[in-house]
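pls ignore typos typing on phone
6-O-phosphono-beta-D-glucopyranose + seq
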Amino acid sequence: MTIVIFGGNGDLAHRKLLPALYNLHVDGLLPPRIAIAGVGRKDTPDAAYREFAKDGITKFSRRPIDEQAWQTFAAMLFFVKASLDGEQVLAPLGARLDIIEHERGLPGDRIYYFALPPALFVPTVKQLDRARFVNRTGDPVARLIVEKPIGRDLDSARAVNDAIAGVFDERQIYRIDHYLGKETVQNILVMRFANSIFEPLFNQKYVDHVQITVAEEEGVGTRAGYYEQAGALRDMVQNHMLQLVALVAMEPPHALDADVIRDEKLEVLESLRPIEGAAIDANVVRAQYAAGFDLGKPVPGYREEQGVDPCSRTETFVALQIFIDNWRWAGVPFFLRTGKRLPKRASEISVHLKEVPPILFNANPAARLDPNVLSVRIQPDEGFSLGISSKLPGPHVRVYPVKMDFHYGSTFGGSSPEAYERLLLDVIAGDPTLFMRRDAVEAAWRWVMPILERWAETTTDSLPAYPAGDWGPVEAGQLVESTGRRWRAL
Ligand code: BG6
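k done
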């Protein structure tokens, strides 16, 4: 197999892809014969590319570099210069790949990874077509990996999907949502369908509400160019958060087959109650971080960040109340929130069970028992816990909230594989389960469009702000508190 990384000397390759491939190599999980070719505009000799890879692995790999493993890995790495402007520009790339494959006895099965700015997806796929790199018969294998964002609205997502579909079959396309490669996210289905204790409770009869938080401590960093055009709704909700909703809410699939699972997830996306018109103002809160503190250090507000328009209205925080209009979840609110420059990096899904009846131990209206909460910690401190009520030891009957807690770190030890390791391995194996199908990407865009459109129309209202280091604006608290609930403290 040959992995061809377009954008081979970019940030994603440096921080994520090359370290992930290195770790797969250390674990002996890569196919025995493989070549990895970075492709980019810069003239880069193979030796310099190997240094670039080594630097990325040294800085970002979850495991320290081992000199012996590195030597064998380095021998698999190549770099090919290619530009995208002009006719037949990929012919030299094809010629070099043929030589590399011939020398290594590789059959020409290839994975093309677009680690590129989205504007280059369509031109690159067209060049692959012109260079006749892809056939749809599957012999030799040709697979395409595309990173998010797939478009910035429904129309542009369709245009990207159409252009790709003109060259690759849907079964050859792997759209990455790296959240689906996280161990804890994969564990959601295991937790639900490999235990008999939880699944019977996952419905409107027992669940009061669900909260999903994806909080980041970092600000926009060096990504203003992209983020200014995106904002939190496009960047996090349309993809990662709706995927989490789908996994928590989906029906049991009848098989662990890629399309059976993806069909069930799609059902959830299609059952989301549309939020339209005035309901948007009542159910969706957006905000932007102002100057504040990160771990006691003063940090600038979003509008003062490098590359950000000083009048920017891009949201760095969004909170929503959403409903899934199907039999299982009718009437159960799902509260979602995500933001940059929040007090800490913490992602968690919590399922809040209904209160016990107000009798016996819960008879005192002034001291209601805490309802049971099942929480899945996606990161950091991966694991899950169940909040239950227990008797406080002593002569009186006093009920105290306690936790049953499972931590990946202490139970399994070591570091879990990075999302990209798992995802790359799945593409090599040809398993699309953890990748986004076209219909899901477009269903998610269809659902967020009315919100984006309303926001685009209301350009004069002031945008709520929150100081960096706070849990979002007061409006986010009110969104939940107005229903008699509150955000879980993380
Ligand atoms: C990316 C977003 O998809 O996910 C980033 O574009 C965000 O803005 C990142 O920071 C978060 O990923 P993780 O794995 O660090 O939670």
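Residues 219 and 356 are 41 Å apart (CA to CA). The chain has a mean pLDDT of 94. more later
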